[in-house]
Amino acid sequence: MFEITEEELLRRKKVEALREMGIDPYPPRSKRTHTAAEAKRLFEEGKLGEDQNVSLVGRVRFIRRMGKASFAHIEDGSGRIQIFLRINDLGEEKYNFFKKMIDVGDFIGVTGPIFRTKTGEITCKVLDLELLTKTVHPLPDKWHGLKDVEVRYRHRYVDLMMNEDVRRIFVTRAKLVRAIREYLDSNGFLEVETPILQPIYGGAAARPFITHHNQLHQDLYLRISFELYLKRLIVGGYERVYEIGRDFRNEGVSYKHNPEFTQVEFYEAYTDYRGVMKRAEEMVAYAAEKALGTLKIEYEGHEIDLTPPWRRLSLREAILEASGIDYDKYPTAESLREAMEAKGLSVDPKASRAKLIDSLIGTFVEPNLIQPTFLIDYPVEMSPLAKRSPDNPNVAERFEGFIGGMEICNAFSELNDPDDQLERFKEQAKARAAGDEEATPIDEDFVLALRYGMPPTGGFGMGIDRLTMVMTGKPSIREVILFPHLRSKEK
Questions:
Q1: Could you read off the pLDDT of 134-179 as tens digits, one per residue?
Q2: Are 64 and 178 found together in one domain?
Q3: What is the pTM of this model?
Q4: Are strands 240-248 and 190-191 parallel, antiparallel or unpaired?
Q5: Rounded to whole angstroms, how far apart are CA atoms 61 and 73?
Q6: Is residue 226 part of a domain?
Q7: Cis geometry, peptide bond prior to residue 309 (ω within 30 degrees of 0)
Q8: Which of 48, 75, 186, 198 places its Cα 20 to 30 Å from the Cα of 227?
Q9: What's CA 409's distance to the chain center, in Å?
């Protein structure tokens, strides 16, 4: 099952020897009075004298043995601190125990005063020592680090253990989520929870994961979006709601796609997509300021300024300028396909007009939207849940936000006409019958909810993973998900 190296065999022999000595290699408790960071800070502030003992714990990251004295570094969740061990302080028995039984990677507890060495390093002089956990599998070579991407993603615990920069990514991610929650809470939004297992999925164009409820003899779907349930809550009388949680889409894996991912969605009554644009740019700027302390970030060699207001750009104009194709002149999938092929593009012969326009965005427009930009006013067939523009019934009041050449959010003026919504669902049903597996199914209960009346509403969804990619300068979604989905490991 596991490959056991020669070094691991030596460590396992130490485990046996410890037990023969009556020492538990995995004791149930430990003693700590300060974290490493607290001890160093209090010493620098003059609040810890050299006559005051502290108890520290952590993983051994470095050992330098020098006969009757040794230096080591231990690391806890707050950082590292040097420890100094001397036979005169510990006694011969415990000092020899350290020399013979403690390896890099082990967890230990030490007690003693804090002092500063001649080189200026704050250090704990160890007067007592205990083993907290014996590590049997050796850590990767500290000089070369852990760089194998396959190992880093598949064994994230080792990645976190060896790469401080990786740990910082997920601290930043947590700060971003907390800041988004703070922003929404402070603006009168109510955080709610909606079903993950749904009898009818909807709210996005995606293939779902299917599961089965044995007791009810019912197929269920892992949600692909929170949208339809959150809008039911607007119908029910809440004016501002949001949810932060997981969605699941049965799609390909890429540098910006993972089958399960985290989103924030919010819905606000009595506003439209332009009001949502303003709130979205404010929220992202607030999160950046809170998590990073700046609105200027680096991503893929570009300096990006998140300061509102962001640029607004018509989708039609953006595609026309970048590709030379005016999709309004090609009202059918067949005519648009011919126009794209005339430009030398390889086109799926079964793709709908909506899919073709989406491919034009991905090919010509999206990669060039480095600074924060809202693409606005999408064709209705691309937006089955969005309200039509009063100026043009073929245009939906929808926008997508882009940063660093990548889509990070999607939003609409929400469709609240129940008859129009039902007709849009029926059009989606035709697309499903024609082979589009990502088309939205008809949700009759949602249509019924709209028949009870939903006020004018703006809705918004943003991927937390992609936002974290941009904020931390990481080009792959796998870098910002603790346990990304991977292919089965070859045996």
A1: 999 999 876 455 677 888 899 999 999 999 999 999 999 999 999 9
A2: no
A3: 0.92
A4: parallel
A5: 5
A6: yes
A7: yes
A8: 186
A9: 14
